[in-house]
Design brief:
Blueprint lengths: L6 H4 L4 E4 L27 H11 L3 E4 L17 E5 L15 H11 L4 H28 L1
Antiparallel strand pairs: 1-3, 2-3
Helix pairs in contact: 2-3
Amino acid sequence: MAWAASSLPTDKSRFICIYPAYINNKKTIAEGRRIPLDKAVENPTSTEIQDVCVAVGLNVLLEKNKMYPREWNRDAQYRGRVRIQLKQEDGNPCQPQFPTRKAVMLYAAETIPKLKTRTQKMGGSDQSLQQGEGGKKGKGKKKK
């Protein structure tokens, strides 16, 4: 199952496409979301989808300059498409827990919020609030 770097991009017939819009909770179904709203993620990026899929052992290709056709915003944040190999040449799934593209999308949406980049962003804002409160307490202690 190990792929040589040269053979990976040439045989894309077994690779499915996943755009970030498919799992974005800011999108409607008409705008391209393909999973339930309660399971979707806020503004996922193609690199986050790639990181999650590589970590679980899927063969992944990241195409940075591709855009989802229904995406009206042309910013770099919304660019990118992830190609994932779901099935082997004999038609069997590469990973038994991912028989369908929807299973991959649901897994990515479930796992992306747990990424270090996501948790650090959330933790960083909490720390800045705590530092502000701590600074006030510190000034009070200095006066004593």
